[in-house]
Amino acid sequence: MAAGVALPAQSAVADDGFDVRITVSGHGGTVTGAGSYEPGETVQLTATPKKGHVWGGWTSTDLDWIGARVDSFTMPASDVVLTTSFRHAIKPLKDVYRDYFDVGNIYSGPQTYAAGSPNLATVERHYSAMTAENAMKPDQLLPNANIDPVTGAFTFTFAAADAFVDQTLAKHKKVHGHVLVWHGQSPARLNSGPTGGTRELARANMERYIKDVLTHFKGRTVSWDVVNEAFVDGLDEFDPATQDWRDFLRGGPNGGWSNWYAAYANGADTAAGQSPADFVYDAFVFARKYGPEQRLVYNDFNVFQSEGKGEAIVTMAKDLNARYAAEHPRDKRPLIESIGLQSHNYINQTPAFACSDHTQLRKVVNDAAEEWQPGACSDHASVERSLQLIIDAGLTADISELDTQVWEAWNGQPEGDDRSQYRDLTDPSVKDRISRDGFTYWVGKITNRAELEKIQAQRFAEYFAVYKKYSTHLDRVTFWGLTDQLSWRSTHNPQIFNGDFSEKLSAVAVADPERWLGIRGQITDTSTLAATVAEAKAIDLRAYTPKSAAAVKKALGQAKAVLAKGGPQARVNKANADLERAISQLQLHKPHHPKPTPPKPPHPRP
């Protein structure tokens, strides 16, 4: 059917019947359902996209639908006009971001890799790195019952994790390990009771656990969350000049609970400088010792609170890295290399941008916007400002558990997390949630649920614009769930695919944030290239051989041209790699020792 053409009624209209008419935009599929119907009759609809296309749902003012994904309705006593559309499917996200960072998702069990499933098809199409949602957590690898209550001996259960890791590697995707040390989902005997309740016992158990796990997975993972969620929540302000980050760990004077903190407090020699907080340092030292090839990450939520929790975490990382550098001068790598921002975000609470004084994306920032509106910003708490703090501390970042929740209550009330209560945002029945108790934030702000999908897409576009702008300091962006329905917060509709794996507008926004935001050209991160150029310009090339100095001059000229003219991230990355390589291959002039002139033979006497 031609685009934009209304389908006529499929049969003559009866005296008391009414018409269903359908208008289609785009050439990517076919529809059925137009015709004449009696009031109360069920109208069956189909919309079948061609290969490589997706369907945009049904919109009808007569039915109060906007982009609804339904297959039937009851005919009213009036004519009904439906409009629909087809568009090209988004490109594979792993290809879109190949030159920026890895794009990942989670493995939730064997169903994720089930042959022939949409789960597997989505993983294979879009993602380059995978994290086990649960299979590599301490209580899965070492159940409490597998720690001998008398001797403390460990009996690991690696089978499920091995299956995940081996299958992931067979699909040519990277594995990120999650998690080694955490107050949650860990066996109690590891750090409490007669087998682990003292500082000495807990420390020995921690070393043994980390050694065994990292040795078992050696060569099969690229990075690990070493410590997870050690800080209390609700830390809105933190001043490193007057406050100690140790006071804000779970179990410390500001609340929360952690068996690791409690065990390390039991037997700590404070006079000798020991602290319950030492468990964080020990965990990273053991991870470096037994997994020197791994990139080591500290992972937490609400890190976007740049002047509070984010600042405390960065201060902790700087302190522990300085301590490690002093104690291990031969290891030139930072101990804590990356901060994982879990990024369980809300579209009305988690702004992407720093404001105009700090942002690198001024053209799309609106300093005056309310939190949920396009361009909303904050210097007090925003993704961009926190990334800047992390980068300024000499660290990299991971977006480790990304979702963007549309409703207000953090726990998805009143439905909670009951997946039987899940509804796509494209389900017309969702409209009643906008004004329901517990979902009241949007009252007076929006009029229909389709606006939520657009607001969510806007926020995802803003996040990925920020991620691209700081991409040379960002290793990985991992979505925490394949679809809305498969998310741990399913009733919050937090992901970029609907429950049937169809693309939401958020998927479109993620695949091309520049187009969504109206930005001309591609967002690139030239900060690392600019730093390498500055390094090269500071080198006195006269001290080096002409050939190696010429190579640096050539690469420097090309790098400066890229900075001046711009270009895709791949070109920026290549220019930086070429210049770094040329610098690394500089060769000093060999000392010149001229041969001494032999003395002239004495003149013979006459």
Automatic annotation (TrEMBL):
GO terms for molecular function: hydrolase activity, hydrolyzing O-glycosyl compounds. Residues 87-513 form the GH10 domain. PROSITE patterns: GH10_2. InterPro entries: Bacterial_rp_domain, GH, GH10, GH10_dom. The keyword Transferase does not apply. Keywords: Carbohydrate metabolism, Glycosidase, Hydrolase, Polysaccharide degradation. Gene3D superfamilies: AF1782-like, Glycosidases. The lineage of its organism: Bacteria, Bacillati, Actinomycetota, Actinomycetes, Micrococcales. PANTHER family: ENDO-1,4-BETA-XYLANASE A, GLYCOSYL HYDROLASE. Residues 596-606 have a biased composition (Pro residues). Residues 585-606 are annotated as: Disordered. SMART domains: Glyco_10 (SM00633). GO terms for biological process: polysaccharide catabolic process. This is GH10 domain-containing protein.
